[in-house]
């Protein structure tokens, strides 16, 4: 159906909005606490397969999330499709998640080093970059060395399947040291490992200058340079006799390759990276390592579309979700627009090719799996979120400088998303999730309203029809929302988490309410209107900044005073980094700088405690003197939305509101300057470098910009 045709109801006939066939939700239904059917929690798969349209529920996972092997203490190196998971001991023993992975399969589970017949004593393990880790151990090699070790064993492990083992001698005389590496693999899928259903190690054969394993699942080989002195296939052993002069060094490099597979070439390295080399400096020393680590993690999670290698998107996170996840990919691409529009363009093109076509109620939808929503709501549909995010990302990428040609090519897919929205709402006011009989979620209405207003702005800019009707519906939604979704109480009220189709309210206060503050960007540096009036926005800001929601480390997924609160509940009390960043940016944009600064300070402290590699979530336990944030054992780390949230947290302080088509940029910095002076250099706006400084008095100044770009009022 061409967009020039009027938006129609599912049967193709134009009906009045409040016709008798589908009455509008009654506003007279009394507010009541309601526990909705919980449903089976959405699985946390090691891969996210090509998503399916989501009205049909997904099958239950074979193993509950709580039973997954813990990953919070692991050192995870990522350069997708390569991944290696290690403990801080350095040795890969094959237990738990340990091993090298390629595209979700463990191609090497065991890599144990012995020098002079002994395992090195581990003394340090640390991440060097997103794709590599360094392990240091010591060995007493000389019998007369006394209590001091005289050999240092350094292992540098790369996600691409390479490990370099280096022996450094501090002995006063030459050493002749036997070194052996014990290798093994089960070639198991990560899903099998997570469910505890792996088989025994496979028998090895001597191959070239190393070992090889083969079975019906696949093949892989390890080669060594220099070649080993001896290779024992039955024991999976490679042996060397290494001679070290006093103060000397010898190295052995192991290279792991699945048979027939080329070396891993990380998408995000070098010229292939869609992100510019941005820098953050200023009074707070944490801003630069936070930005550096977040961008490194984003690069490590990039995936190419196999059918269109020039198009890239982000995987959701490691180790559990190393495949594409539409809603997370779109959200992360939107938060990283200050680093360039290439990721947004690739993500949009990839997802446009998955868009459901043809007739039917789901036509125009971006498919996605269901996602657990906690104890008080049934699982939601990530396809709904992705479909509503698509036109918003396109519109805002265009404002940041996405070329006109690319915008026009993607515009039909955005139109289909907007048509799906109006068709699904039909003659009602609200968008159910999942369709057609799911609850009316608060955050879904906020996302739908944003898509309508920002999408209408984009349609008008390109002379496409449909904008007026979208605005009319958005205005009707604004008029109805505060009456239907706001719960009045003595403290000033709160937004309901959801409303059942029969009008009952789900009164829980959670982080999803932060999406009410994320209204979207329009032209000339203006923000789109939101669903809340000024008084209710002020009340929501007070709630988000209060102790029930702000843990001191970030925004809890559910207020601590709620009956269903669980500090480790991933939708019931844990701090989700993405939602905290959304809250910080929304509060800052709305002028509630105290609340925004409090959440920002907590998140920066948490980032420092996590070595600046933010997990997707962590426990919502309150922050106390001398405490540290508690990791969530099942959280992805790195995670795309968490890494992108670090970019949003810093750019929110500057308040960059671009309009590249109009040749303007407006700056609305946080006047209270919670981090003192901050300087962001090397951002990207209108296809050119963009740098900005915010001083200690909260005044912003552009230091570098595209020729002809004007500063808006």
From TrEMBL:
The domain of life is Bacteria
* One family name in Pfam for this protein: GDE_N_bis
Q: Where is this region: Disordered?
A: 1-58
Q: Which SUPFAM superfamilies match?
A: Six-hairpin glycosidases
Query: Which positions fall inside the Putative glycogen debranching enzyme N-terminal domain?
Result: 84-255
The protein in question is named Glycogen debranching protein
- Give the organism, scientific name: Streptomyces cynarae
